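pls design
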């Protein structure tokens, strides 16, 4: 009985360390403690990010189905941006983690600087397209008249301010790769709290602030994320525990930049394949109607919120794999993936039960349209069945990425998303006339299959031989 207080005290101390940040060497401490110290802030970081998405769609949902559809269609283009940001972030996490595992903080810092410069370069084309061609971009995706005449300002702000999205992703990847997950968590807490406060004020108006409608949601998001980027840059220069930059590192190193870019190509490729697959799915749904797009958009936000703890655990796997391979401990790297995979699948089993019991109630929090609720509820119910297998896929893909093997997940995504998911969804939805149900079942089949295949591939162990 005396052991219980001691266990609680140790757990409390570990929780405080995880939230405050620690200088622990993740290649030497116990795996359970390493997973805990990394996963807790990573989970809370992504929960806050998904909370922002949920809050956004909650307020925009009050403006009607067309407004929600505008957000969903804009996100199809943002997904392309996210693919670049996440692909680059994947490479940055792997490279920084490997350098930290090798105990070379100077090389880690130089890699961080070049990744930031690359992020700024990547953002420029999206910025130009969003500022000058927003209505045309929405029209390409089958937007209704309201979106093209009234809602396009949302698209202008979101794409025009894309540099803050890129930097937020990439700099937090630097922190995660270095093991400073608590810093990445605090950055998103601050940026998303600002967004949550500004959302209702700018959308509906308050006091002297005029009601800006859907445009206000985009302005709130840009201000919140911009504040987070300023906090990131200050922390990188002043307060990092495992990585800290100095002014002399802020210069272009073309060879290193090219190396990071080449390493990121696999990560960018896998994200582009996955994100463009979603664009095609949204295009199919737009043929069904605005209610189908709105239902899928809200369901996606709900899934993003509930999947964030699972992604947080998966990100911990990437850091542990990268640092332990850098320290010459491949067996420890593999053990960390198996442990996290079991934790992930257990969590998503609970999420699946939640979806089955309360999917209509969850949708009802964001819209009162019965047709939109029915469509979103159907998707939540279908995909919940595949969540356990999907949980393993999330961890194993991050293990490949953390090792620097970004090519393998790219090829996997290419086959299962482009060659299976899109044609199958199109055939079921439009060919057989299943409408939105055809899209949902096509996604179910492809994501279940990719999870099982990735498990087999991970067990082969070739990822342990990667050099970055």
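designed seq:
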């Amino acid at each position: 009985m005396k052991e219980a207080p001691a266990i609680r005290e140790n757990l409390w101390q570990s929780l405080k360390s995880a939230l405050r940040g620690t200088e622990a060497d993740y290649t030497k401490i116990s795996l359970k403690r390493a997973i805990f110290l990394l996963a807790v802030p990573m989970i809370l970081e992504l929960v806050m990010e998904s909370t922002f998405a949920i809050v956004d769609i909650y307020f925009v949902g009050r403006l009607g189905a067309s407004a929600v559809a505008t957000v969903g269609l804009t996100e199809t283009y943002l997904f392309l941006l996210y693919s670049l940001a996440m692909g680059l972030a994947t490479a940055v996490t792997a490279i920084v983690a490997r350098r930290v595992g090798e105990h070379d903080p100077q090389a880690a810092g130089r890699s961080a600087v070049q990744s930031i410069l690359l992020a700024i370069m990547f953002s420029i084309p999206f910025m130009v397209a969003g500022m000058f061609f927003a209505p045309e971009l929405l029209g390409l995706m089958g937007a209704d008249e309201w979106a093209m005449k009234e809602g396009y300002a949302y698209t202008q702000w979101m794409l025009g301010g894309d540099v803050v999205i890129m930097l937020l992703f990439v700099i937090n990847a630097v922190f995660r790769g270095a093991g400073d997950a608590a810093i990445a968590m605090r950055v998103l807490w601050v940026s998303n709290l600002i967004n949550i406060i500004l959302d209702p004020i700018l959308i509906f108006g308050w006091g002297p602030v005029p009601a800006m409608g859907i445009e206000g949601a985009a302005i709130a998001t840009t201000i919140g994320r911009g504040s987070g980027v300023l906090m990131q840059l200050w922390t990188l220069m002043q307060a990092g525990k495992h990585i800290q930059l100095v002014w002399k590192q802020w210069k272009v190193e073309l060879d290193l930049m090219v190396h990071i870019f080449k390493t990121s190509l696999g990560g960018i490729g896998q994200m582009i394949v996955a994100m463009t697959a979603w664009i095609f799915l949204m295009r199919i749904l737009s043929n069904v109607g605005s209610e189908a797009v709105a239902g899928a958009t809200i369901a996606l936000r709900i899934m993003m919120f509930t999947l964030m703890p699972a992604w947080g655990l998966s990100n911990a796997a990437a850091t542990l794999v990268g640092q332990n391979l850098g320290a010459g401990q491949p067996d420890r790297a593999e053990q960390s993936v198996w442990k996290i995979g079991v934790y992930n699948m257990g969590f998503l089993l609970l999420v699946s039960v939640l979806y089955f019991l309360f999917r209509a109630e969850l949708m009802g929090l964001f819209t009162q349209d019965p047709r939109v609720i029915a469509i979103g509820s159907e998707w939540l119910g279908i995909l919940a069945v595949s969540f356990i297998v999907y949980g393993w896929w999330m961890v194993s893909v991050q293990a490949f990425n953390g090792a620097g093997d970004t090519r393998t997940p790219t090829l996997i995504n290419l086959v299962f998303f482009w060659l299976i998911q899109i044609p199958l969804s199109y055939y079921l939805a439009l060919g057989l006339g299943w409408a939105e149900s055809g899209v949902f079942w096509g996604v179910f089949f492809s994501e279940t299959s990719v999870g099982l295949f990735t498990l087999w591939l991970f067990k082969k162990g070739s990822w342990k031989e990667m050099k970055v």
